[in-house]
Design brief:
- With 272 residues, the chain is of the alpha+beta class.
- 43% of the residues lie in helices and 12% in strands.
- It has twelve helices and five strands.
- Strand 3 and strand 4 form a beta hairpin.
- It is elongated and about 60 Å long.
């Protein structure tokens, strides 16, 4: 396993995805005497053109070093989404998922460029914020603070989107479909966190989230991941009530771990 990888988590991911598939999902006969749900290890090995012993070592979390071709074959055999395959690569290699990449023991100090802060403010009245590598809110314009929360009034340790989502009543008021959005946020955060496995600040945040939220405790072991991207969601504005918003997510070029998210009311459906 390359430096920075996480063999134990990789094995957990493989096992969880194997257990979610039925033989019919991958074109295999059901067979007899199948005592547990999901595929057998030997069936996954067959689909990925691997030896059962090698696949078993991977699932057991042993420090073997799978090639990119092996990971591609496993992702295909287990019907992984693009986000799940990305997560698989990060767990195998660490860092950004590239073979042989390393991860610094701690993340660099978080700084935001003044020009980005100025852009966030100029985008008002469209709610806009910038989140950092740990999903701390680094900048938010007045519209975003009104819609979500007044981040600047919160203690520094509480200006975190994931913590806010899972530990505050305010988040449940803002997100009309809180559970769906919370699951999605945790999936996106998990994919980001996998690239910072040796960052002590991430480890502390994840431990605190699992301690403080029953939902994180229940969902984290499932290894569900979702790619970050633009989309739409229904939010409850404190003055205007429920509104469907479109949001765009942009990566900050000079600080790739930082992303700018801006919201605007979604255009009405012409057929409605």
């Amino acid at each position: 396993m390359a430096a920075g990888g996480d063999p134990e988590a990789l094995g957990q991911l493989l096992r969880s995805r194997r257990e979610r598939l039925a033989p019919a999902d991958v074109g295999l006969p059901e067979g007899s005497r199948r005592r547990t749900a999901g595929l057998r290890r030997e069936e996954v090995a067959l689909l990925a053109n691997l030896s059962t012993t090698y696949y078993t070592f991977l699932e057991q979390g042993r420090p073997v070093r799978p090639s990119a071709q092996v990971l591609d074959a496993l992702a295909s055999a287990l019907r992984m989404s693009a986000a799940e395959q990305r997560y698989l690569e990060v767990l195998a290699y660490g860092g950004d998922g590239a073979a042989g990449s390393g991860v610094p023991p701690t993340g660099p100090a978080e700084r935001i460029d003044p020009g980005v802060v100025d852009l966030v403010q100029r985008l008002d009245p469209f709610p806009t914020l910038v989140k950092g590598r740990r999903w701390d809110v680094l900048s938010a314009n007045p519209a975003a603070r009104e819609l979500f929360d007044d981040w600047e009034s919160l203690p520094a340790g509480e200006r975190n989107l994931v913590r806010w989502m899972f530990t505050t009543e305010r988040a449940r008021e803002v997100y009309v479909d809180w559970e769906q959005e919370a699951r999605a946020m945790l999936g996106r955060f998990r994919l980001a966190a996998a690239g910072h496995r040796q960052d002590g600040e991430f480890a502390v945040l994840i431990a605190e989230l699992r301690r403080d939220s029953e939902h994180v405790r229940a969902w984290w072991p499932r290894h569900d991941v979702i790619a970050v991207g633009s989309g739409s969601k229904k939010l409850r504005h404190p003055r205007l009530g429920p509104i469907s918003y479109s949001h765009v997510v942009l990566q900050v070029a000079d600080n790739p771990d930082q992303t700018l998210v801006t919201y605007s009311p979604a255009a009405p459906d012409p057929e409605s």
